[in-house]
Structures are given as C-alpha cells and as structure tokens.
Amino acid sequence: MAYKTDDIFSFSAFDPSKMTEGFRDFAEKGATQSREAYAKMKSAAEEATKTVESTMQSAQAGSVELGLKAIDALRTNAEVSLTHMESLLGVKSFAELIELQTGFIRKQAEITVEQAKSMQDTARKIVEDVTKPGKEAAEKVMTTFKAA
After folding, report:
1. Quick one: residue 2, left, alpha or beta (phi over 0 = left, psi -120 to 50 = alpha)?
2. For the segment 46-95, what is each residue's pLDDT rounded down to a tens digit?
3. How is residue 3 annotated by DSSP?
4. Coil, helix or strand at residue 11
C-alpha cells in the first residue's frame, strides 16, 4: 500500500500568476471607480460654488432693489407731508382744516397700502430669484441620482 505523502503538501492548484492578475484587475477597477467618484465630486463642488455665487448675487441685487423701493417710499411720504403742511398754512376755517386733514389721512393710507403691496411683490420676487439656483441645483442632483 503506497501512500502519496507529496500530495498533502502540494499546492499544485495554486497559481500565483492568476492571483496577481486578479489583484491587478481589482486595483484597476478600484482606481477607475475612484477617478470617477472624484470627477463627480469635483463637478458637484463646482456646481455648488456656482449656485452659491448666483444666490449671493441675487440676494445682493434684491437687497439693493428693496433699499431703493424704501427710499422711494420715504421720498413720496415726505413730499406728500410737505404738500399737506403747505396746504395747512392756507387754511381759513376749522371745517377746511378737518377736510384737508381727512383727505391727507385717506391719501396717506392709500399710499401706504400701495407701498406695502409693492414691497411684498418685490420681496416675493427676490425670494424666488434667491432660491431658484438652489432649487435648480437640487433638482439636477436628484436627476443625477435617479439616473445612476
């Protein structure tokens, strides 16, 4: 009865060249995936930077526009008040004073309502302009994830 002792210690099924090829393939795939991930991250970072810049520009332009509207409202209110004061200087009776005062209050209320509507419309537009780049960027990212 012959025992094959050399088979117990034999590694004839183990081929180092195949292991090296497998490791090389694994390393190449890992490097490719890393490059692709880096490219996506770089692109996302660039898009985020553009979004922030666009948002800041919109916010800055919006604050200037609101500031100009506020200045215009102050100017209008000052002009109306000065005109009213000039009218009061020419009052000849108490009834005329009451009539002028009532008209002034009514006109001032109408102007205030118009100014408030104008400021609200401007503020709404600014919010839309400021949030638009972020919304578009988020939609683009979601589309990218859905496609992947």
Report:
1. beta
2. 877 887 787 788 888 888 888 999 999 999 999 999 999 999 999 999 99
3. -
4. coil
Structure tokens at 65: 């526009």
Range in 2-6, 38-42, 52-56, 120-124 the model is least confident about? 2-6
Axis-axis angle for helices 94-147, 16-89 (nearest 10): 170
Extract long-range pairs of 44-53: CB within 8 Å, 24+ residues apart. Answer: 44/141, 47/137, 47/140, 48/137, 50/133, 51/133, 51/134, 51/136, 51/137
What pLDDT sits at residue 10? 53
**DSSP state letters, 48-85:** HHHHHHHHHHHHHHHHHHHHHHHHHHHHHHHHHHHHHH
Q: What's the length of the chain?
A: 148
| pTM exceeding 0.90 | no
CB proximity list for 59: less than 8 A, separation 6 or greater: 126, 130
Residue 26, amino acid: F
